[in-house]
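Structure ticket #2291
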Amino acid sequence: MSDKFKNVTEAQLKDYIKTIFLEVGLPENDASIVSNLMAEADMLGVDTHGVFRLPQYVKRLIAGGINKSPNISIVSEKSSMALLNGDNAMGHLVMEKAANIAVAKAKDHGVAWVGANSSNHAGPASLYARIPLKEDMIGIYVAVGSSNHVPPWGGTDLLLSTNPIAISIPSMKRPPIVLDMATTVAAYGKVKEKLQRKEEMPVGWMIDKDGKPLTDPSKSSEGFLLPIGEAKGYGLALMFGILAGTLNGAAFGKAVVDFNADAKSFTNTGHFIIAVDIAAFTDVDQFKRNIDDVWAQMKGSNVLPGFDEVRLPGERSNNLFNERKKNGIPIHDNLKQALDQLSEQLNTKKIY
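Resolution: structure written out below.
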């Protein structure tokens, strides 16, 4: 571990985050739900979407950009679908509720799709795709990103975001297979992390408006995030944005508010979650054994020069989760400084 990091326990992190949220006016139960999900993000190694985001969330809560006492409600519902109005709540609260509704409906109907509008940034996509795993279900989550950093392929106007997707699949003896990806080469949170750590971005994350590589994160507003697979990544971002945004009556395209630059405006963030009950299709245990076999096949592949092994989606996160359970969660010095400033602002205890 670099001397730029110091570890904290999961319990320490949860308690710190919850204390901050209580101080700014979140109700006890809501503060518990959000702090647990944010700490889980850090436990899984998604360091750009856990406690790293706390100062930004607090800024929006204090400025009125997020509703501290929301009434999250179902505004449209049929047997295997629902649409939630998040009442401008923390996105974590909206999507935790949406995922639980999807699971309950999938138990009765095999598959359920739950969309949401009037929400906010909710952390990493995998948090919500993982919720159906607890009931031996497949989870699929998509969101409209909370700021536009991508033009349509061949264009220059910033009309799209990273629009992430996560898919989780349970196994019997192996960790679940969990894909969690942006439709861009790098999520914008990674750019923000590089900025905080005073590090350069790798070539290939962004280009400037002349099409040249952009590696200085402090100049990210002068360029574009690059979509994965060029036009194919643009197509995925477009379609995911329509399904998570337009279909739900949420913001998409020009209507997306940049929550990095605007702490007050209503973002109307859109998401959806799908829960698929494996038992409706096949024997659950046999399916999970088959996924173990998929693991074995992938891991047994001959390895190209330059690679140590073949990894499956979610394998790294599972390994980091186990490591951090044992050794704690690393907090970078520059993140610690930002959190200390937040604690001093609110007159609360520091993370350590």
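Closing remark: The longest helix spans residues 91-109.
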